[in-house]
Structure formats: C-alpha cells, structure tokens
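Dear Dr. H.,

I hope your travels went smoothly. While you were away I took the liberty of generating a structure for the chain from your last submission, since the lab meeting agenda had it listed for discussion. I wanted you to have the full record in hand beforehand rather than looking at slides cold. The sequence, exactly as received, is reproduced here:
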Amino acid sequence: MSPRVFTVALGLLLAATPGFAQDIQSLIDNGHLRRALAATNALPHNALAAYYRSQIALNLPDQAADALADAQTSVSLEPNNADFQCNLAQSAGARAQNAGTFERIKLLRIIHAASDKGLQLDPKNITCLQLMMNLYQYAPSLLGGDKKKAIETANHILSIDQVKGNLALAGLADDNKQPAVADAYRVKAAVSSGDTFPAHVQLGRQYLRAKDFTHAESEARTALTQRPGNFMPYLLLAQALGGQDKWAAVETTLTDGKKAVPDNLSPFYGVARDLLLQNKELPRAERYLREYLAATPELGQYPLSAAHWRLGLVLEKQNRKPEALRELQEAVREDPKLEAAKKDLDRLSKG
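The corresponding predicted structure, in token form, is as follows:
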C-alpha cells in the first residue's frame, strides 16, 4: 500500500471511530493545537476537517482569514450543521475585527445570516447566541447594535447554561465599566452547575491583576483539579505562588506542568516575564526562559522571538551586555517585526 493510500485509509478509519471527533475538539479546547492539527490532517478532506482547521486557526494570531475560508468550506459541504454555521459566524466576527469599513459590513451580514441559520437548526447553540450578543453589544445601531438586546441574549444564555450565561453577563458588565458587578457574575459562574473551569480561570486572572495572590492560588488549584491536562491552571498557579514568593512551590508547579503538558511550557515564560517586570529573582527568570527556549512552542503561544527578547532584558539587568546583545539579535532575526526588541537592540548597541 502506498503512503498516500495508507494515509487516506487511516483518515477514513479515524473519522469513523466513535469519540475521535470529540478527542480533536478536546485537544482544541485545552490548547493542544499542534496535536489537534496533526489529527485533523489525518482526516479526509471533508466538512468536519475544514471545521476543525477553522477552529484551530481562530486560536492563532493573524489567521482569521484562513479560519473564515475553512468555515465557508465546511458550511458549503454541510449547510445544515448548526455548529458549522455558528463557527462561520464566529470566524466572520474574528475577521471583522481588522477589516476595513466596507468589508466589515459584508462580514456583519455573514454573521447575521450564519447565526440565524445556526439558531434555526439549534435554538440553544451557545456559540451562536454569544455571537448575537456581541453583535448587539458592539455593532452600530444602523447595523443591528442594541445593548438592551445584548443583555436579553445574555440572560437567554443563562437560562440554558448557568456558567456561560453568568460569564456572558460578566463580559457585558466589564464593557459597561462595572468591575464589581462583573466579578459578582464570575463568582456566580464558579459556583454554578456545569463546567466551571472557564469561570475559575477568569477569576484567577482577575485576582492576579488585583494582586490578590491568595485567592488567585485558590482558583488556579480548583481549575487544575478539573483539567490537569490544560496548561492554563499551571500558569495561573505558578504566577500566584510567585506573587507570594513561594519559590519551592513554584518549582513543583512548573515541574508538574511540564510532565502533564509537555507540549506547552508557557508557565515557565509567564513566571519569567513577571520576574523581569518586577526586577527580582533574575537568575531564576533566566533559567525559566532558557527552559522555554529549549522546546518548540505550542501553536498560538509565546514565540521564540519574544522569549529571546525577554531573556536579553534579563541578561542586561544582570550586567551581561554581550550575552544580552546576542539574545536581542536573535529575537530580531526570528521576528524582524518585533519592534520592542529592535528598539532595545538599538538602545543597547549604542549604550
């Protein structure tokens, strides 16, 4: 059997295997995009494969156009699939964020049409309802914007899914400059029935921003018990512990995270960045950045250029100018558009 025939046969077999599609979706939901892409590439070139490629692209920077193209392919092949229609609306929304005025109007029409179709097929589709809520919240009134309808839609989501509904209401409260109200909705989401992982992650981030490291640690630990194969709880927990100078616990968390999620070492980068910004524990920050640089970054996570840039700044603060210059040069070589690194390289070269 030729390699190509074998690949096609394998894809057909996997596509017919119960749970395989759910496995790919779980990989996407938990940030394992490189593995999800490999699994998707093993599928036949059908609507489901196009849908997954679109979902993966939505999680990557500057790939909204690819996400939209794949979403359109999936809908053209299976127009009566609610998830595919709602993904089309979501992809059009992502594309609209950086589109010109005329293209944005066209994309808003796609969002409307695909969301309407998706909700006709599945009136309780949360993705479509969230998109309609965002459309009402952010679009001009001439193009369907209506903040009252946004709140009504969020409450409708609440009637279907308490966690996602409370988080939707929290997002609207944030937009309306009501942080206390938003936090109250997040707390409600965290104690609701259902998958509360997103609520604990949001609360953990919120507590980190407020430098409430004790509560951030608590939320991160709860999230970790729910999804030990997701990198985010390890990142939040390590940052919360670092904020309390619990360095032995930080080391344990990072080690556990590397074992559980070896394809995503972002927790090392996140803690190192915090240390650099706080100008403390610089040898530790250097070690964490070198750990991150020793692996291939997960798709959509911090690029190597950013890690080289941060490492250059850490080395500069330790008065190791020649090494710092080499790291900054490598950052610019990796990404010539990384303006912050270019400025620091120019500054340090002249200093």
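Two observations you may find useful: The chain has a mean pLDDT of 92. The two ends are 63 Å apart (CA to CA).

With kind regards,
E. W.
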